[in-house]
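A quick aside before the break. I want you to see a complete sequence-to-structure record at least once, exactly as it would be stored in a machine-readable document. Don't worry about memorizing anything.
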Amino acid sequence: MSDIASLYSIFMSNIDPVVVEAQAQVVNKFLPIDWVFEQRQVPLRRYAHADAMKDCITHCTTDVIAFLDIDCIPLTSLAFPFLYSYASKGTLVGAVQRANHIPNGAHVYAGPFCLAFSRERYRAFGSPVLREAMLEGKPYRPIPGQRGDVCEELTYVWEQNKGLFTFTPAVQLMRPTHVEKPLWNLEPGRERFGHGTTYDNLFYHAFEARISADRQSRFIEKCKQVLG
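That is the input. The structure line, written in tokens, reads:
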């Protein structure tokens, strides 16, 4: 059987190899047989995440492409088929995110930590930029013409082209169903997200595992729970 989707997990050199192995074990437990999975380490520098994602898109051999952060895992065998069911129809699908450090009208978007889309649709929309907005000054403000965090431009572009979608939404966002430590706002008056957020009971994202050994240890323990 030929591959129908490609999944990439991109991580920096400051991640414990035990975290990398823990994620791989969980992903492989739930990965459909016709998906290909690759973990890719990249240098610790500005734009490394976005540039590595762009490289994956360029060299991917399947139309449907998905991304996970190294501290994001599926929780059930339904997780990856859910992504595919939307991405294969051209929808941008992912876990909801908001860049609270960028004053862009509280825009929510499909975060790069759990994201899938069609490469054909991506190219048809002009191969939108993946790099985050350059910021200047304090409080931070985007340089004119740049309006989002890593991959946020994808959601803007898909939203602008929503008229092309008849039977599926342009953007499908998974929302928090449980948060271990709420820290950041989504839309005003709605749920928050933070460390240890579960989305639609399908995916779990530790958030900021790169920052401390303690957070990486908690992620490893979550992986052990999922593996049983």
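Two observations worth writing down. The chain has a mean pLDDT of 90. The chain has one domain: 5-227. We'll return to this after the break.
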